[in-house]
Amino acid sequence: MEETMKRIGISLLCLIMAAGAVFAGGKKDAAPAGDTSLENILNKKRFVLGLDDSFPPMGFRDENNQIVGYDIDLAKEVASRLGVTLVTQPIDWNAKEQELATGEIDCIWNGFTITEERKQVLTYIGPYLKNAQVVIVKSASPVNTLSDLQGKIAGLQAGSSSVDALDEAPAFKASLKEVIEYKDYLTALMDLDVGGADAIIIDLVVANDNIQRSGKSFRILEETLGAEEFGIGFRKNDHALSNKVWETLEAMAKDGTVAKITAKWFGSDISIIGK
């Protein structure tokens, strides 16, 4: 399995690097006067992370029903260095921004794609990892290109960046017979397996992990719907907290902790923090 994970990690890195240059670091905004976001976390000793708990390998439930994943390991280490307890809070991904705005969670950290639309209402830190939107089909499917999906059914997760990627490919979207929105990707992939959909539009990291972990006879089309980057979302004015989290991640990158965690989940260090 270790060698398989290494091959997956290397393939993932090569595909993403080919899609565009790696950008270094994350933008920091000065904390405005009266910003108590960091102070609030330190005082209550809890850092609440909102996530879709069915999004492996970023955040998901293991065989013991414990929430684990790449993002979870990163966040646990950040929380430890801040001297607070990490609380993982499953949320409705389609209402994630609302959960953040109402204070139910302190951040959205779960393979959260950076988009211009989201940047208008959130403070992002990152990017920390590159990704791409891809199409996954059954291995025996006659579909080999996006054009082969004309007149067929494609599925994706509601509220995900896959929805944005599809909207940004209007000709391809118009060629589809139907687009099904699922609550989560595990449900979508189960429907693909039983023939309820002809293809699923999905994050590359999730597609690779599902194929490796489930052993299902799926394959990923070479043609993608575009490259993207993962970041961590905070409330618009929570700069004191977001800056501290990013500073901590940068320190973790310098001392090798990020590389160790990334290699554990992807087989190699494909993180872009500080690179």
Automatic annotation (TrEMBL):
Domain Solute-binding protein family 3/N-terminal: 46-269
Residues annotated as signal peptide: 1-24
Keyword Signal carried by entry: yes
Primary location group: other
Pfam families from the UniProt entry: SBP_bac_3 (PF00497)
PROSITE patterns: SBP_BACTERIAL_3
UniProt xrefs under InterPro entries: SBP_3_CS (IPR018313), Solute-binding_3/MltF_N (IPR001638)
Protein localization: Cell envelope
GO CC terms, sorted: cell envelope
Keywords annotated in UniProt: Signal
PANTHER family: ABC TRANSPORTER EXTRACELLULAR-BINDING PROTEIN YCKB-RELATED, MEMBRANE-BOUND LYTIC MUREIN TRANSGLYCOSYLASE F
Stated family: Belongs to the bacterial solute-binding protein 3 family.
Protein name: Extracellular solute-binding protein, family 3
Lineage: Bacteria, Pseudomonadati, Spirochaetota, Spirochaetia, Spirochaetales
